[in-house]
Amino acid sequence: MNAEFDRLDRAWYIDRIAKGLIFLCGISAIIFILSIFVFIFAQAFGFITEDLDVGEFLTDPTWRPTSESNPVYGTLALIAGTASVTGLAMLISVPISLGAAIYISEFATGRTKEVLKVVIEMLAAIPSVVWGFIGLTIMNPLIIQIFDVPMGLNVLNAGIILGLMAAPIMTTIAEDALKAVPDSYREAAEAMGATRWQIIRRVVLPSARNGLTAAVLLGVGRGFGETMAVLMASGHSVNLPTSPFDSVRALTATIAAELGETAHGSPHFGALFTIGVMLLLITFAINLTADLIIRGGWKQRGHN
Amino acid sequence: MAEPQASAIRTRGLNLWYGDFQALFDVDLDVAPKQVTSLIGPSGCGKSTLLRSINRINERIDSVRMEGEIRVLGHDVLAPEIEKAQLRKRVGMVFQRPNPLPLSIRDNVLFGWRIDHGGRPDKDEGEALLEESLRRVLLWDRVKDRLGQRATGLSLEEQQKLCIARLLPVQPQVLLMDEPCSALDPAATSAVEELIWELREQYTILLVTHNMAQARRASDDCVFMLMGKLVEKGPTGELFLTPQRQETADYIEGRYG
Fold first, then answer.
1. Residue of A nearest to B171 (CA)
2. Is residue A157 part of a domain?
3. How do beta strands B64-72 and B9-18 pair?
4. Measuring CA to CA, which of A18, A169, A187, B60 is 20 to 30 A from A198?
5. What would the pLDDT profile of B138-177 be if each residue is shown by its tens digit?
6. Domain extents for chain B?
7. Chain B touched by A302 (CB under 8 Å)
8. Could B115 and A195 be called an inter-chain contact, meaning their C-beta atoms sit closer than 8 Å?
9. Which CATH superfamily does the domain covering B9-252 fall into?
């Protein structure tokens, strides 16, 4: 009847194309993560089905993949290395990050606040190899001097370095969580005569609990996944640590250091990818938990 | 130092600035004890600012500067030695939007007591305080079976009553109310108004309201403010029937505001 009303003009086609392209970009993250899973699993598949002894892999502290006669693929020492470094890092970074986040969110005002936030973001952007370098050249002699030990590349060094690395991102996320606490809560508590600390302790921290937990978990995830700095600062020797002054080797660092030296398709190669699968699953679980906690918090707030 | 005082709240020559903007001009306010005094006036006239000066909660805004005198129960509350936290325990405040803390009903009511005493009351004392406070605001029968539930799940009327109840355990003498019914529906408004009317036997209440009918219904004295100045004050009935100033007459007749 009226031809004009169903005309598909240039704008209509452009709209369709733009929509399609934007959709592709939007779901590319899903494509990438699935591809990565498939790729890593495929590389590890041969080792997992043929050579893998799960008990040995998880509980044997001997990592001897290059032995001609009797290769042993035990990752316990590597797991212990990663866990000890990450654990120490969290002991250092959780209090610092929470303190910094509380200061920025609850005390700092105006310029101080803005400057601090920018500086913390800059800290988060420092490449991990630079942190590793600091571990090698500054922390190493410092630890030798202060604690009178023969070697300064150890759990303590890597833990401190990793703690400092994880702190900025944890601070930023924790600050977001504190900022999300409605100001009316603070005002209500203040009007009832609560001091600054009482407001923080009794109102702000409990309200932000979910976000703060997520911040800590993401920091842990960062610790597990960090490679270069840990490789450089930890001493990189396979060892079940009994003190902070023992050198250790992390799961990630093992892959980074050895992958270039192995024959493609060899059991050693497959074993390294199996470690990769393990790391992927661990960090995936940590991030998913953090995400669920944050969402859980939102849902709870939504109900009220 | 406390001096004997006829007024529960008294300001003299109170000036207040937000940065360069002057919001209050030489306000001389007298609030009689154990009565409801309403503060009325058009938006931006400074009535909330005046109210929020009395417990100094307006100092949450960094740019606020005050000059003059505010006395609450004889105490000079602008004196440098005044601890704001202590002042606020004696001068409770109810806000426009009910703002219960994201805690259980029980913890909301006992919050003030806990921060005042630095710990939990023992069980019997706590339960007694809880029941007494909630009974006082006519909420006990409605919430006594769910004291552990989050207060933010209550209806707005219940939340606002809870916000009044949580002031009572630390025994304030003055209650400041900043449009406490403006977020409530008419039924809830009248319930809260009745409560306010009843509380005046025990507390001095200063009530900011946008609603002239409410001022008329629910206050003994009424203060009219305009452009940061206190224009007229008097017994509510007289002020509404025979206002002395032209601005007051125009406002209550609805010519502006």
1. A192
2. yes
3. antiparallel
4. A169
5. 999 999 999 999 999 999 999 999 999 999 999 999 999 9
6. 9-252
7. no
8. yes
9. P-loop containing nucleotide triphosphate hydrolases (3.40.50.300)
